[in-house]
Write a structure and sequence with these properties.
The chain is of the alpha/beta class. The protein has 2 domains: about 5-145, Serine Threonine Protein Phosphatase 5, Tetratricopeptide repeat (Alpha Horseshoe); about 185-320, Rossmann fold (3-Layer(aba) Sandwich). The protein has helices at about 5-20, 20-35, 40-50, 55-65, 70-90, 95-105, 110-120, 125-140, 145-165, 210-220, 235-245, 260-270, 290-295, 310-320; strands at about 185, 200-205, 225-230, 250-255, 280-285, 300-305. Helix 12 links the parallel strand 4 and strand 5 (about 280-285).
């Protein structure tokens, strides 16, 4: 079989399919994509004869990598990716489950089951509770979400009590006032804005669904000496914080997919390592409702889009937390 071309193998797969031999069809297609991994049609057929939801998901992902506009792949991947994520969660394969389920809720923010299962593989009780609150928002009748929230609230309370017993009290938050151009609004700061030390390297985490916009913000902040860490959404940002360490400054787009910007900021404020990190929200429309939500979530500042580079740099200079030498 290995001496045949990818085209010959595809033809054999079609013949086997017409004969009802699914096993041979799959084997021929697997060998065909090994020889020619850029065949959109072959990956599409392979998705249809996959043995597991995970295998089908992989095939549909390959189709979408080759052609992001393939509508059949967009529709086909949704149910199998969710099932593959559930299967991985049940099998305790947490990394695979998280990857798949995060992709589910990023593409389908109203997928109740995706959020519910994502909560089951969350890294922290606070993160799990936030996912279950999203389930309850989508379906106020969800008994599983209510029960899970009660469980995690108890766990969070126990952790908070243990932390309070072992750590000194945090400094009282101060009120920060500053002027911004074009309606930009600064909110209460969670910590005093310390003086930045000359030459001190700082790390900025930029969370935005647009890779281009992340790069533009990164180029702007580089003028102030920041190194850039990127994330497409809140779930990826949590991974970056865990893997790369707590950043000195976070720029957060209000339109990120999945866990929204306000919920993500509340998560940050509930964790001792990130509760004081400055978070600047980039928002397209900023009225009284958005102002209230931003302040309640613990945003340090809100800047209107389109963002002016100097305005962003001013916020970084004022709020950036830098470790002492």
């Amino acid at each position: 079989m290995s001496q045949l071309s990818a085209v010959d193998l595809f033809r054999q797969a079609m013949a086997a399919s017409r004969a009802g031999d699914k096993s041979k069809t799959r084997l021929c297609l697997l060998e065909a994509v090994r020889i020619d991994p850029n065949s959109e049609t072959t990956w599409q057929w392979l998705a249809g004869v996959a043995e597991t939801p995970l295998e089908a998901t992989h095939s549909w992902e390959k189709v979408l990598q080759l052609n992001p506009n393939n509508e059949k792949a967009k529709a086909g991947i949704r149910p199998v990716r969710l099932q593959a994520g559930i299967d991985a969660a049940k099998a305790k394969d947490v990394p695979t489950a998280k990857r798949l389920l995060r992709a589910v809720v990023a593409g389908e923010p109203k997928n109740e089951h995706g959020w519910l299962w994502l909560a089951s593989v969350s890294d922290t009780p606070v993160e799990a509770k936030a996912h279950l609150e999203r389930v309850l928002y989508l379906n106020p009748q969800s008994k599983a979400a209510r029960k899970g929230i009660e469980y995690y609230e108890t766990k969070i309370a126990k952790q908070a009590a243990a932390s309070a017993a072992s750590e000194s009290a945090h400094p009282k938050p101060i009120e920060v006032e500053a002027e911004q151009n074009d309606g930009d609004t600064l909110l209460d700061s969670a910590m005093p804005p310390p003086r930045r030390l000359p030459g001190e390297p700082s790390k900025a985490l930029v969370v935005d669904g647009s890779r281009t916009y992340r790069k533009l913000i990164g180029m702007t902040l580089a003028l102030e000496g920041f190194t850039l860490v990127e994330a497409e959404d809140a779930d990826e940002a949590i991974d970056r914080i865990r893997d790369d360490g707590v950043p000195d400054f976070i720029v957060l787009d209000s339109g990120i997919a999945g866990l929204d910007a306000f919920e993500f900021c509340r998560l940050l404020r509930q964790h001792p390592d990130t509760e004081s990190v400055p978070v600047v929200l980039l928002n397209g429309a900023y009225g009284q409702v958005e102002k209230s939500r931003s302040k309640n979530a613990g945003m340090t500042a809100v800047l209107n889009k389109p963002i002016h580079p100097e305005t962003l740099l001013d916020a970084a200079r004022q709020f950036c937390r830098v470790a002492a030498l």
